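Before the break, one more example. Copy the sequence into your notebook; we will annotate it together after we see the structure.
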Amino acid sequence: MALNIDELRSLPVAEKLRLVELLWDELGAADVEIPLPDWVDKEAARRRDEMLQDPKLGLSHDEAWQRIKRRNG
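Here is what the structure looks like once it is written out:
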């Protein structure tokens, strides 16, 4: 597959975001394991441990959805 990087760079931001959405959806629909770098697991573990030490750092499921709903009006 040939991609013209200069053409991609010249796209407006909205079109670039649309391409990212299309790629993300395609990856999500693929029935394959997506390899993640080690740092992703380490960061997830760090954040989990941080939350376990101080639960006030996070939001409950309900609080998170309330914030999303308020933001989206």
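The mean pLDDT is 93. DSSP finds four helices and no strands in the chain. Try to locate both features in your own notes.
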